[in-house]
Amino acid sequence: MNENKFDKRQKILCPIEYAVSLLSGKYKLRLLHALIKESPKRFKVLEREIAGISPTMLTSQLRELEADGLISRAIFATVPPTVEYSLTAFGQTTLPMMQSIKEWGLLYKGRNNPAEVS
Fold first, then answer.
1. Most buried residue, 29, 80, 94, 104, by CB count within 10 Å?
2. Domains of the chain, each with CATH number or no CATH
3. pLDDT by residue (tens digit) across 14-30?
4. What ranges in the chain are assigned the alpha helix state H?
5. At residue 110, does pLDDT exceed 60?
6. In what order do the strands lie in the sheet containing 82-87?
7. Which residues pair with 38 in a beta bridge?
8. Euclidean distance between CA atoms 92 and 76, whole angstroms
9. Using CB atoms within 10 A of its CB, is residue 60 exposed (0-12), middle (13-18) or buried (19+)?
């Protein structure tokens, strides 16, 4: 019997490993950041904002974020169908972490020597 991702994650004991399992993916943090800045956003807007992402990869990453409860998807009955993505209440709990990552990035972005810590 195959275990799904959720069942596998429930067995993870380390909270950092659990968080990484939710947020790992080349574009997930960038997608969350885009939705933190402004939400909801349409698929094409996200595609334009996230440099280098293909439509297939964008769909994959959005589906994983949705399956994990971090974002929600709203489909509107238009021609062609309109789809908007927004943060869920659970997704909004990433705000303090994202702010800390931003501050850390700003603090160390200008360093000349990656091994140097000031």
1. 94
2. 5-94 (1.10.10.10)
3. 888 888 888 988 899 99
4. 5-10, 15-23, 28-37, 43-49, 55-67, 89-92, 95-108
5. yes
6. 41-42, 82-87, 71-76
7. none
8. 23
9. middle
